[in-house]
Every structure is written in structure tokens, then in C-alpha cells.
Input
Amino acid sequence: MLRPIKKTCFSLLIIFLPLCGNSQGVQLDSLRNELEGHTLQDTIRAGLLIEIAGEMTYSSPNEAFPYVKEAIAISEKTNWIKGEALAHRQKGNLYYVLGDNLNALDAYQKALVLSQKMVNKQLESSLLGNIGNIHADLKEYDKALTNYRAYLSTAQSLNNRPDEIKALSNIAIVYNDTENFEEGVAYLEKALALAKLEENNLFIAAITNNLALAYKKLGQNEKALAHYQEAADLAQQIGNKYIEASALNSIGKINVLLNNYGMAETNARQALSLSKEIGAVEWESDSWEVLSQVFENNGNMAEALDAYKEHVQLRDSVLNEEKRSELTRKEMQFQMERQQAVALEEIKRQELVKNGYLLGAILLALISILGYFLYKRRRDALEKRKVAEFNAKVAETELKALRSQMNPHFIFNSLNSISDFISKKDIQQADDYLVKFSKLTRSILENSEKKWITLEEDLELMELYMQIEALRLENKLNYRISIDESVEPENTLVPPLLLQPFIENSIWHGIAPKQGDGQIDLLIKKDDNMLEYIVEDNGVGRSATNTKAKRKGSFGVKITSNRIDIINHLKNTNGSINLLDKTEGLRVEIRLPLELQF
Amino acid sequence: MLKAIIVDDEQHCINRLDGLLQDEGYDIEVMARCKTIDEAQRKITDSSPDIVFLDVQLGNNTGFDLLSQLDTFDFEVIFTTSFDNYALKAFKFSALDYLLKPIDKIDLASALQKLREQRNLKETSKKIDILFHNFKEGNESSKRIAIPTLDGFAMVDTNDIIRFQSDVNYTHIHTLSNKKITASKTLKYFEGILESNTFFRVHKSHLVNLSLVEHYIKGKGGHIILTDGSKIEVAVRRKEELMKKLNPGLES
Output
């Protein structure tokens, strides 16, 4: 099916009917009779129904729908896909003729899907042509061209010349519509050549007419005139008055332009009678227009006015119809666009919903992950704290154990001293020693229970200890305790008795073996956040000490070292013990984290 | 010449004290040396001594049992003990004098000198009352304390003490009855005595009764408000422990 007459842009574009016929009415009647005789719901009946609907396309499209509907139903029931496709295409044709592009497109698309399903290239390509027509009508020229080109290439591959001609012609029409007349002429010439090969006069007449119009638009009046003349002759020859009337009007218009008024009048009157014969109002109007111009030129103003009135009246009626159909088309287009917009909106909405869900899911996942990590971190922190607390407890217990280990060690050393006095029969000294020892022991017992005591208390203890040892060494021992000004003994907390093993070491292994008096200097100072004890003696030093005594002395030192390790672990500090050999004696430096009571 | 009685269930302890009292040439006559509380009770009634040296642990009994059996005290008491934290604490609460065994002659000398200087039988009787009260009650909630003041002793229920505030070598004690007692002891002394009670050293200069804390105000160390409306600064280093004490359930 070619596109119907395009009335708006150009006066004539040719429509190729599926079944061209003067014998239309006759054929329709015989088909109807045949249908009545064949009530069986089979493919034959379906085929008949489609044929009848086809015959009714232009005469009574509205009444043709029930036939198409039945054909579709039968085809579906009998699984006759081709029938179904043809029926849908016919339905599309009906809608198309009625100007309902939207429904037409829908029907064509259904038919196209079916044709592709059964791999019917012929049908498929003609449907592409139909769809192209709709796009062209909707001025969607790109889409129209795409469809027509597909139509053309299929027709060429199938060697279907009529379809090829139709495709070429329609492409040309699109070019002309877009005022690309050179391209239009080129395609029309191709179509014309093929039509001549085909010896199809209708096609030749229609194409020649269109060619003439294109030439006129290109300003080649002579060429246009020749082609119109040819078209008119050919139309007359095949009895197509529609084309003939159109061509004659066009010739008339050119003759007016060429000032051949006599010729123009002849053309116009001929066209007018033909138009009236076939009821082609649009051509009638054109004829009146030419006549009006002729009369005007002849000075026959009254007739000119009448003719002009006729022209305007008819033109208006045509235009009204055009306007109506244009309006309908516009409405269709609008509806289609609206539907498309709605569909797009829906797609967008669904996408939005989808994205929303996706976003929600991602968010939920993120929150879950975050929640898990927070939970895990908290749990880990709690666990860590528990472990740390447990470790601290273990360390405390160990410290306590170490503190209590200190006592027997010291006690027995002291008892040893008392025994020494008794053996020397110095009862008074033994008694003094014993009282002091009992005081010291009491203090140690009380204080070793504590984690921390004040430096003041600890130094009192150390002094008591050194007094006792001085007593034992019969005042061979002198001691001096110096506290740096920056240290507050009453506010500084220290682990109890930390120094005792080092003082003991200095006395027993440094000063006791020495000839003459010994001196112990105890210095306490502050260094940043560390408290520093320095125990210095002028004893014999480590090199002079025999290995046995060294080992014995290192027992208390080892305990202190362990205590400092634990404190370091608990407080995350770096307390340390350093033993430095001097030329005479030993210097011990102990560094502890500075702890203040307030 | 002061009359003295030594009560101790161990002969060598009696011997040592006896020896020290004689050697140093104090103006003291030891009237009796008793090993049981019954014997001691009799001797005290018979000879009405000026001083009783009383061992805390007497076999299955205690020196306190002896005192509780007596109707009146017209003598000074100096307790003797070797190592008994519980008893020591009781002595400190009641400000009664005591000597630790083995007895140091220097300690004995100072105890006797103090006794001669501030002999006050009425106060001794009060101190012994406090001792009995603290022992009888047996609970931590109602303890009484003899607070050494410039002119004697103030007997106060620890529940009535709101806070202690140090003032160099003195300590001011604020009580619920709005009384301010100035003690001739350092804050450290009271902290030592009241250590495991509801008292807590929140600051170098402040020992407070935690059961009378009304409010804690957050801060670096923060402040506490006590029942009497006094606002006491908390030392930064004491904050954590204070929180633990105020909220024992907080740390799990």
C-alpha cells in the first residue's frame, strides 16, 4: 500500500491501491456470496474475510472491522500465522485510511512480529513500508526513511519490482516533503525506470506526475510541463481520471504562468469536468482557480469573481477536511506522544522504584555492616579491656607474690646478724638490733601489703634498714639520703621496698668485704615523668665479689627487676634498672614512672 | 612513785618490761605481775595501781575482757601487743596508748613521759568507753573516735563527721552539728585510722565522709557537694577511685 494522497504539501502524491479496480463493487459482491456459502471456521473463510475487508478499505472502512476481527479469531484458533498477520495488516490499513495512525501502527507492529515469526520476508518488507508511511505522516522523516530503506532492500533482494518501485517512490516523497527535490527527482527517476520496465502504466503515470511536480518546484517549468503532459496522456490512456485531472490542472497553472491563457482555460475546463465526474473536490477547486486567473486576464471580472468564489469555497471545504484530518492526526500524534510519555514516565518511575529499592538495600547493607563493625569494635574493646583487667589482676597477684617473697629473704639475713651478735656475746647490741629489726619487720609486713606507699614512708623504712645494717657492721657504714627539690616525698608514690635489694647488695657485697668505712649515697630526683633512684656505694665493686655472693645478691635484684617489668606492663612505661661499675664501688640507677598521690 | 601492774600471759614479756622499767630507773614500782585476768582483777582491786600494762591477748581472753569486768577505772592503761592490726586500729580510734612488743625502751620512755604530763583519769575512762563501744557495736556503721585536740580529746561519732580539712600540722573537723573541731594531728593521721571506712581522701587537704556526699559536679577532677553545702575540690588523680567508691556497680 502506498501512502494516500498528500494534500497539504503538494497537490498530488499517488496512492497505490492493493487491488485497483473499476470492478471493485462486482468483486466485493461475488466475494460476499462465496463467504456466505463457506460457513466453516477455517483458513479459507479467514482468507475470504481478509479479502473482503481489503476490498472495503476505501469504500467503507468502518464496516470492514468485523471481517478483520473474525479473520483474526479464526487464524488464532487454527494457528494460521500468515492469516493472522494478514488480518492484522488489513486492520492496520483500515485504521490508516481512517487516519487513526496510532491503532494502525499497533496493528502493523503485531503483523510485523508475526511475519518475522514465520519468516515471511515479503510480508515483512511491505509492513515496513506501511510503518514508514505512518512515520512520514507524523513527519518523523528519519524513521520513515529507515523503514522505507529496509522495505527497499528487502524488495530488491526478493526481486519484487512493484515493491521496489513503491519503496523508491515513497523515499522520493519523503525527500520532496523535506524540500530536498534533487534527491526526490533522483529517486523518482529510478522508480520511473523500473515502472517502465514493468510496463505498469498506472505507476508510470503517477511517478511522472510526481516528477513533474518536483521539476516545477525546481523551477524547471518546461520540463515540468512535458512530464505533466505525459502523465495526463498516460492517465487518460489507462482511464485514471484522478491523475489526469490533477495533471491537467497543473498544466493549466503552468500555462497561466507562461501567459498561455487559452491553453490554460482548455486544461482547466477539461480537468474540471473530470473532477466533477469522479467527485474530486480538491481538483475541482484547483480548476476554478486556474479559470479565475484566465477570466481575470480576459477582463471578464464577473466570471473571474464567480470562479474565484467557487475556488475558495471548494478549497475551504477541502481545507476544512484537511484541517479536520490534520487535527485528527495531530491528536493522534499527541495521544501517541502522551502514551509514550506516560510509558516513559512509568519506566522512569519503575526505574526510580528499582533504584530506590536498590539504594535502600545498599543503605541497609551499609548500616548493617557499619552496625556490625561498631558492635564488633565495642565487643573487641570490651574483650580487650577484660583481658587487660585480667592481665592487670594477674600482674598484681604476681607483684604481691614477689613482695611477700622479699620478706623471708630479708628476715633470714637479719636473723643471721642477730645470731652474729649473740655469738660475739654483745647482748646490748643484740637487743638494740632486735628491737629495730622487729620495728622494721612490722613496717615491712604492713607496707608490703600495699601496692604503693609514699616515698617518705619508703625512705623511712630504708633508713631504718640502713641503721640496722650500720649497727651490724659496727658503724663501718655511713649513709646519706638526698632528695631533689623537685620531688615531694609525701606526695610521691612508690612501690614499697624496691630499693632494699640494691642497698643490701651494696652493704653485703660492696662495703662488708671492704677494709675501712663504707659510704652509701641514696639520691632521688625527678626526670620528666620518671622518678630516678640512684644508689651509689664505694665498696669493692662487682669484679672483686666472688661468684657465689654475686648470685646470692642478684636474687633480690631479680625480684625488683620483675616488679619493674610488671609495672611497665601495667602502666605502659619504660622503667629500668642500670648497674654501672665505678672505679670504686657500684652505681645503680633505677627509673620508675612518677606517680603522685594528688 | 607510781604503782604499776603488768598483765601478760607470757613470762618472757613480763620479764622484758620488768627489766626495762628497773634498768632505766623510772620512778615506778611494779606491784604485781599477773598472767590471768582473774588474778589481775584481784590485784587491781587490792592495790589500786596508777598504771596497768595490759597485754591484748591473754590466753583465751583479751585485755578488754579484764577492763569490762572492772566497775571503775582509777588508773591509766598502756596496752602491749605484738602484732594485731585489729587491736591497733581500736587503740587508734580511742587514742589509747600502746606499746609494741618487743618493747623499745625509747617508746616506753616517751609513753611514760606522756602519761605523767597529761594524766587525766576522766579522759582515760572516756577513751575506754569508746573502745568498748567500737568493740561492742562491732559494726563499721557506728564508730566513735577520740580526737586529740589542743586541750584534750573530743569524742565524736564518725557518722557525725562531714569532713576533715588539713591546716599544716592541724586538722579541722566539720561535724553535722555544725561544730568545728581543731585536732592536733595531721590529716594523714586520720586517714590512717579511718582508712577502710566511708572516709575518702579526695584531695591533699580533704578527707570526706562519702556517705554525706550529696552531689558530684563534673570537671577535670570535679567537685563534691556535702550535706552542709560545702564544695570540695577533687584532685584529678583521685577522681577515678572516687568514682569507683561512689559507684561500686559501675565497674563490672
Residues 90 and 169 of chain B are 23 Å apart (CA to CA). Helices of chain B lie at 11-23, 37-47, 63-69, 85-94, 105-117, 121-137, 187-194, 236-246. Chain B has a mean pLDDT of 87. The first strand of chain B starts at residue 2 and ends at 7.
